Amino acid sequence: MKVGFVGLGIMGRPMAHNLIKGGHQLFVYGKRTVPPEIREGATVCDTLKAVAEAAEVIIVMVPDTRMCRTCCSAPTASRPA
Q1: Would you tell me how many other CB atoms lie within 10 Å of the CB of residue 20?
Q2: Where are the beta strands (DSSP E) in 1-81?
Q3: What is the mean pLDDT of residues 4-25?
Q4: Intra-chain end-to-end CA distance of the chain, in Å
């Protein structure tokens, strides 16, 4: 499955790694650095929109509601009309 993943912190990093190990095609967005074990097995996207366009499903693992709203309503995010 093509999985988009946003948020590679304390919880997101191991979750993303397990998805890669499980054979899923991962598309990630990381504002900061993308951990090496994720970078090796995933496609790193420059924008949230690129993640949304490539993935069948998207997992957002960010620390709070404000950041979730930012991810889901960013001008570069891809949303259905």
Answers
A1: 18
A2: 2-6, 25-29, 42-44, 57-60
A3: 95
A4: 24
